[in-house]
Each structure stands twice: as C-alpha cells, then as structure tokens.
Amino acid sequence: MTNAIKKYEVVPKRKEMISDSMFHYIENLASRASEDSLVRSIADWIALGCYTGFRKSEWCSDHHESFDTIDDPNWGDRQPAVPVIAQDFRFSTATGRRVHNVDSTPDNDITFTTLCFRKQKNNDNGQTLTYRRRGDSSWMCPTQASLNIVRRAKRLGTPSNCPAAVYLDPPTGKRRQITAAQFAIFLRHVAHKVFDIPTGHKDLLPWSCHSIRVTAANLLHRARFSDSYIKNRLRWRSDTFLMYLRNTFYTADQHTKAITLGLDPPTRRCARPLEPHEELLCASAA
Questions:
Q1: What's the Cα-to-Cα distance from 208 to each of 12, 17, 18, 226, 283, rounded to whole Å?
Q2: CA distance 37 to 169
Q3: Angle 172-177-182 from CA coordinates, rounded to 5°
Q4: Signed CA dihedral, 33, 37, 43, 47: sign only
C-alpha cells in the first residue's frame, strides 16, 4: 500500500464512510494477518470505532513514538495521554461482575466492555459508555475488539500511560503506534481495491481517520435509530452529526422502497383499452 495522492493538495470537506463491501475486504485481510500486525490492529479499532464513533485524537497519533498529552494544570494526577490507553477499558461478565484478568478468562465469559473517554473535544471528560458482546459472532463485536486491543498492548509491552493503538513493526521488531496517516493510507487502499478507484485519484481522499465517526453515525441512522440516540451514543452535544449522514446506496434503496410502496408495474391485462386518439398516438410514436 502506498499513498500516491500527492498532486491533489486540497483535502475535501466530504468525509466518506466505510461501506459493507469495504468491511468484508478488511476482514479478509485481517483473517490472513498475524495477531499483532498493523492490519489486524486497524481492523480491531475499526470494529470498536463503529460503536464508539472515535474522533481521530481519541485513539491514534501523528507519530510512531510520540503522542499528544493533556496540558492542563487542573488535570491533576490523571493519565495525560490524549488517545485511549489500556486502563481506559473495563470488562465485566453478563451479571456485571468485573473481570480483572482478561488473559485467564474465556472470551465468551466476558460480555461487557466499558470505555472511559478521558479527554473529549467537547470537554465532557471522563464520560463512560458500555458496549455488549455480540451473541452470534465475534465479527464486528465491540467486546472482542476491545479484548484484542488490550491484550495486544500488553503483549507488546506498552507502558500503562501510552496509547493502546499499537502494532508490531516487522522490519524493526518493535512496537509502533498507529498513525493517522497509516490509517488513511489503509482505507484508501481498501477503497481502491473495492471500488476500482485509480490509485492517486482525488476520489480516494474522503477516506481518512474521520471515516470511523462518519460510519458510526451512518450505521445507527441506517438502523433507524432516533437523532437523540445517535447523539447520546456517539457523544455529540449538538446536531452537527446530521452533516455526516450520507446519500449512500442504503439511503437510495430505502428511498425507492418508500416511494414505490411495494406497487408492482402495471400489466396489459389490468390496463383499460386504448381510446382511438391514444391508438393513433402510439402508432405515430412507433
């Protein structure tokens, strides 16, 4: 994967969502990748992000080694990292009993994951939201993705005060933080493959880190959840999320179904006989 988008300097305001076909392509890539690879790590963050609606600053970094920290004298002794760290995750069973050791507990015994958003753009800091495991599959499951993220951070020796969005870099054998640029390159590569958009074309630019938040809003809207539910679950204070709701294939499908109301096209049998002037009109058209 290479980022060949260089001749287009202006990044468009439009932010594109991750489609179903892109999800399937990503899962196919992840299923063939190693546990600590960049692809598997990105796939986990996308799966979790579809529930959380992550902002870029909340999970990834701009550099492999350094990351943004909170520069606020009133922050106290709380962890200063802006992106999510492993300590921000809390797991529990179906009965609500907290799971302290995720390594020794079977995955299916861990039902809920609660995530603390320590630092948010809207300054609603310390907000917590809980997500439930999918009962039918581990595919696109927020709890399984969270477990994968926490376990990967531990395997790679990530310090407790450092971002959990990490992967193993094969050339160096070292732990690296996922960068926003890497994520954008990955999504544009997937869009290039799925939609056959030429490499380097400006139509690839709308896929970026913000695609996670756009996708989360569109998925809930597609499932016909109310505006207030979308605002609450994706942590918006205003109605600005409405700008992310796209004219997608799914909305086009819903629109057609709504307009046609299930009506079948007319048949000759149910049509009335043509009147003389109509027969002349049809004959002249033919």
A1: 11, 9, 10, 26, 57
A2: 7
A3: 90
A4: positive
Token code pair at residue 212: 């996670």
CA–CA–CA angle 179, 113, 97 (5° rounding): 150
Give, in words, the CATH class of 20-244. mainly alpha
Band (12; pLDDT cuts 50, 70, 90): low
pLDDT tens column, 215-233: 999 999 989 899 999 999 9
**Which DSSP letter does residue 239 get?**
S
Closest alpha carbon to 79 in 131, 128, 53, 117: 117
User: Domain locations in the chain?
Assistant: 20-244
Q: What is the DSSP letter of 197?
A: P
Region 201-210: what's the mean pLDDT? 94
Strands ordered across the beta sheet of 127-132: 98-99, 89-92, 112-117, 127-132
Query: Whole-angstrom Cα distance, residue 177 to residue 38?
Result: 9
Terminal alpha carbon distance of the chain: 55
> Do residues 147 and 128 touch, judged by C-beta distance below 8 A?
no
Tokens of 115: 């995530």
Query: Which phi and psi (to 5°) does residue 127 adopt?
Result: -65, 140
* Angstrom distances, CA of residue 235 to CA of 121, 137, 156, 183: 10, 26, 30, 22
Contacts of 281 (CB under 8 A, 6+ apart): none
